[in-house]
Hints:
Helices cover 37% and strands 19% of the residues. The chain is an alpha/beta fold. A six-stranded parallel sheet has the order 1-4-3-2-5-6, with helices on both faces. The protein has a three-stranded antiparallel sheet with strand order 7-8-9. The longest helix is centred in the middle third of the chain and has 16 residues. It binds pantoate (PAF). The site of pantoate (PAF) has 10 residues, from strand 2 and helix 6. The site of pantoate has 10 residues, from strand 2 and helix 6.
Amino acid sequence: MRIVSSVQEMQRQSREFRPRSKKIAVVPTMGSLHEGHLSLIRLARENAEIVVTTVFVNPTQFAEGEDFTKYPRDIERDSLAAESEGTDILFVPDVEEMYPKGFRTFVEVPGLSGLLEGKSRPGHFRGVCTIVAKLFNCIMPDVAVFGQKDAQQVLVVSKMARDLDFPVRIIVAPTLREGDGLAMSSRNVYLSPVERAEAVVLYHSLQLSERLIGNGERNCRLIISEMEKLIMTKPSARIDYVSIADASTLMELESLQRGDVPLLSLAVKIGGTRLIDNLTIKVP
Ligand code: PAF
């Protein structure tokens, strides 16, 4: 595995693969790689000859007061993990490389970016779209792999790629969960043992909604209120949002119809740690 930290060198490497018709897949990450990320790298491997994993904690997608400075970083561990899954190039630029002095240009997808996560974290998707567009320009991938856990990110990035004609196929990997159901996340390391035990309530609330829908409940407000009641039984939990929305427009739904495939998503603070999770369900 080669470790590349400059944009110029990354572009040079990618251009070298082109004439040999080598398909390139990128797995963009902010590092602190866990089994969920490794499953993205494996999926990338299945879909391309060359896998580029990126590790960059992107400052522009963190709002003031969020966890940018304390976000877990361990590049040695990440390199070993990325290499063991078959990464060919680990792209690890620093902040000055990606945002040199005088940087002014941002990419935005209004509408979709202002809902759910975007409502709670203004500017978040502007930062995500900007860095993903830059990574696409550095790596020139044929395929990009993102995790379903960040369902809204998948929608926003796919829209950006379409609108800006990036010739990239977006592949979505299923959410990987711990044994008790908690979605894998780099932020899980922030949780105290008590919070870790309570954090599984996010998944339990999604399972509850699945049961309610399976039993014929179609009223979204009622389903959300049952999910919220369950979450609030955990002393460390503070709900940011619980949503049942159209899976492509993210517009909130009042009621469900047979055959709908809504996106059920939520963000909950467990102690000081903000966690997200989601599920798509086909309404029977
Ligand atoms: O999902 C993430 O880890 C980040 O949002 C991404 C896509 C790497 C952009 O910084």
